[in-house]
TrEMBL record:
One term under GO cellular component: membrane
Sequence similarity: Belongs to the autoinducer-2 exporter (AI-2E) (TC 2.A.86) family.
Protein name listed in UniProt: AI-2E family transporter
Species this chain originates from: Candidatus Doudnabacteria bacterium RIFCSPHIGHO2_01_FULL_46_14
Membrane protein topology class: Multi-pass membrane protein
InterPro entries per the UniProt record, alphabetical: AI-2E-like (IPR002549)
Pfam hit, one: AI-2E_transport
Cellular localization per UniProt: Membrane
Amino acid sequence: MDKAKLQLYFFITLMGATLVLTFFILRPFLAPLILAATFAVIFQPWQRRLASFFPRFPSLAALAGVISIALLVLVPLTLFGFQIFQEAQSLFHSLNTVGREALPESVREQITRVVPNFSPDFERISRQVLNWVVQNLNSIFSSVFSTALSFFLFLISLFYFLRDGKKFATYLKILSPLPDQQDEKILSRLYTAINSVIKGALLIALIQGLLTGIGLTIFGVPNPVLWAGTAAIAALIPNVGTAMVLLPAIGYLYFEGEIGRAIGLAIWGVLAVGLIDNFLSPYLINRGIRIHPFLILLSVIGGLSLFGPVGFVLGPLVVSLLFALLDIHLSSSRANE
């Protein structure tokens, strides 16, 4: 073996070992880094506006962007998450404590008229459903230090992505072995996919969940924040959506004897929640890349299992990248035919 090949193999081995070690060093921080990059892409138009006010001070513009995003998005979502966590734990413990008697007597009487042998095992049902919710939410609140550190790294990363995003993109193009044209296509399609899925489907689902929670609060359904979070995930299920939460809530009010409230919640569900998708979809969902809502749902559930609560964004983001690459591959194949 000549000296040149030996040097090449040594360099490749050293580079590979360094990359592996770097990955394991940065692995605990990958979630906040990817999440910060995603937020930087989503809020890019807003950041351009801020940059126009501070043309000579890009750091000040990026700082203003971080503060505005934190106040408008992160703080409400954090408070919402804490409330969901508390309501889930409260409901979990109450169902396990009172068992079958957790169902109001008036509701049980109405149901047993239709199903005489109605006797649900609430302890088993609550353990299967609510325990999953508590465990996934508990992963982000279990360690105060790690949560605070991740949040701090997210804010710092978001600042640099907002300020130096174009420089990072240029550096990635230099490192990539692909032609610059292919790199441009990948970044462009990824940008389109992020806006289609994250700013489109997920944002609409969150808005539908929020409106569902408002309706449940107005008409007196217990634990409205918990069910609002459930409705946000259910909104991703094709042809089912928030009805998975609203219909049982309407039934609960009806069997409780609150006929007027049940009718009011049904009207709210149709007008405020059901029609929101028709109004917002044309404005929020980019037509470049469309992913089936059921696949988005699977990516959300898989992301939650793999990454914890931040998987609500990271799961669909990974699937979006896959579809962006597949779209580029199909476009190239057709061009070569």
